[in-house]
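Write out this protein's structure.
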Amino acid sequence: MKIRIVPALIAFGVSALAGYGFYAANAKVAGNEAWIMLVVSAVSFFVTLGGGFGIRYREGESVVGITVLSVLAEVIHLVINLVATFAPFRAAPYIITSGIVLLAYVGIVYAMSRAFD
């Protein structure tokens, strides 16, 4: 695996902007807990975007499968964040749900990248 600098920087920028957007949407409603949404959404978006587009995998690995899984995880995180934005915000379920999806994504990508060793 090698890190591709430009796509990784783009993934970082998009995830930071998405995190700030969800923070701004919840700042008045969630009050002091809105920063949790900023951090959790920015990290989850960066991990899934960076893992799918910011890393170049060796030949023979399931690159298409990892990219599709990254897009799927990104959509799931987007749905979680939209639900947390438009429903009454509660930090604990949001953190737990986002964490489970993120850890499942990392575990599956790790298994897929090691499948051809």
